[in-house]
Specification:
Blueprint lengths: L4 H6 L16 H15 L6 E7 L5 H4 E2 L4 H6 L22 E2 L5 E2 L7 H5 L3 E8 L7 H10 L11 H8 L10 E3 L15 E5 L4 E4 L5 E3 L2 H8 L7 H15 L16 H15 L5 E6 L14 H25 L2 E6 L20 E7 L7 E2 L20 E2 H12 L5 H4 L16
Parallel strand pairs: 1-10, 1-11, 5-13, 5-14, 6-7, 6-10
Antiparallel strand pairs: 2-4, 3-4, 5-12, 7-8, 8-9, 11-12
Helix pairs in contact: 10-11
Length: about 425
């Protein structure tokens, strides 16, 4: 399908001018434009999910602070975040929790997300996670990405199964993109997915079936044009050449957005680029590590505070860059394999725990509230006498986003062995 730049821009599907593109567009972009136009004509728009994995088990009790729970302070004599105190200006007050609803508050390093909460575009699910009791990072991450807790034999990830069973627009090679070096577990499977470590150097891994692409894509394409790179592979080749021509290095964020320096900030910036380019992006994935804080975790300041500041700055920049109109079609979902112990340990850190907190951000979010049931932190309320108890299975949050935001109607196939249904949803989306 041939489509020139003038028609593409006139179609109203997307403005690629932000990427500085000039010249004829590849055929997959023409199809993306027509698909988007069809969605608009029927009263909808293309939806995008941005999944952020906090690898290493973030301390959800200091990320979303239960400052109204007296037991929290008794168990964390050096790590607890102080209760909110009036209007924050500077100095000591800046080290207090950012009050959300009189009971919960944000870690002070996440203060930049409070306006999203006030605008009802940022919701939280607390005491969420996996029903499996493992405290192994490797197993817990595998279970969360496969969405089959306790089952190690699952071959594919839950996001890949979503793509398999909802095959709309699958002809776009950019339908599912992970801004990581390798394809994450959650996107591994039969459906095509790209892992792009950096749009600027085009290091690409196109799912399980293709070789790594590092500037040699053309030669690989020539050698295997009739085999593994036919069909979807041809589209990927076309897409790579398109990205080279639009020169992502010249991209300028909008609305004064300032992404944090480093891999995480870069990955969010480039996800924003792909959304604005209208290449058919439906699922984007990235991750951020450094959450395994066994020693000297810190309270309002320290190693956890630094990680949270990077997370918050990245999300804030992404939302600012995309703008309110685009964010109406985007949901940002955060997750971590498990939480950390309710009590601090002897080295002023926290050990591997159980339930945790998840963020849901976007125009469709039912924000300004903490969803789910709070189990309490008294000794008799803790899981195994040491951890925040689980009251929301992470699959119920995943399933709600899959169904309400991405339009999936195949939850039983996306979450095998689990009775995922709307009755279990927490109401995180409107």
């Amino acid at each position: 399908m041939g489509i020139n730049r003038r028609f593409f821009l006139r179609s109203g599907a997307v403005a690629v001018a932000g990427l500085g593109f000039a010249g004829s567009l590849p055929s997959f972009l023409g199809r993306a434009a027509l698909a988007q136009n069809g969605a608009i004509a029927s009263g909808g728009r293309r939806k995008t999910l941005i999944a952020i994995f906090q690898r290493g088990a973030v301390d959800g009790l200091n990320m979303v602070v239960p400052h109204g729970e007296a037991a929290y302070y008794g168990m964390r004599p050096t790590l607890a975040i102080a209760q909110p105190r009036g209007v924050v200006t500077a100095g000591a007050a800046a080290d207090t929790a950012v009050d959300l609803d009189g009971f919960f508050g944000l870690h002070p390093s996440l203060r930049m997300l409070k306006p999203l909460w006030d605008e009802k575009r940022f919701g939280i699910v607390h005491a969420a996670g996996s029903p499996d009791a493992t405290r192994s990072h490797f197993d817990a991450q595998d279970y969360m990405e496969s969405a089959t807790p306790g089952v190690k034999s699952t071959q594919d990830g839950w996001l890949n199964r979503l793509l398999q069973h909802d095959p709309k627009d699958k002809q776009s090679p950019f339908r599912a993109v992970s801004m990581t070096q390798n394809t994450p577990r959650t996107l591994q499977g039969r459906a095509p997915a790209l892992a792009i470590s950096n749009l600027n150097d085009f290091t690409i891994r196109a799912g399980n079936a293709s070789a790594n692409v590092q500037g040699g894509f053309e030669s690989i394409y020539e050698q295997t044009v009739g085999d593994t790179l036919s069909g979807t592979g041809r589209e990927t080749f076309e897409a790579v050449n398109y990205l080279k021509r639009v020169n992502p290095a010249q991209y300028k964020p909008e609305n004064g957005a300032q992404y944090p320096r480093g891999r995480f900030g870069d990955s969010l910036l480039q996800i924003a680029q792909l959304i604005k380019a209208g290449v058919g992006l439906e699922i984007a994935f990235t991750d951020i590590g450094g959450w395994d804080t066994h020693i000297n975790q810190g309270a309002a300041r320290g190693q956890l505070a630094l990680r949270l500041a990077e997370l918050g700055a990245g999300i804030n920049a992404l939302v600012t860059d995309l703008g309110a109109a685009r964010m109406n079609d985007v949901v940002v979902l955060t997750m971590s394999e498990f939480g950390r112990t309710a009590r601090e340990n002897g080295t002023r850190g926290t050990d591997h725990g159980h339930a945790n907190a998840m963020f849901v951000i976007g125009g469709a979010a039912r924000g300004g509230r903490v969803h789910g049931q709070w189990p309490g932190l008294k000794s008799e309320q803790l899981y195994e006498g040491r951890d925040l108890a689980l009251t929301t299975d992470f699959r119920d949050v995943f399933g709600e986003v899959a169904q309400k935001h991405l339009g999936s109607r195949n939850l039983t196939k996306i979450f095998p062995g689990y009775a995922a249904n709307a009755a279990k949803f927490r109401g995180v989306l409107g």
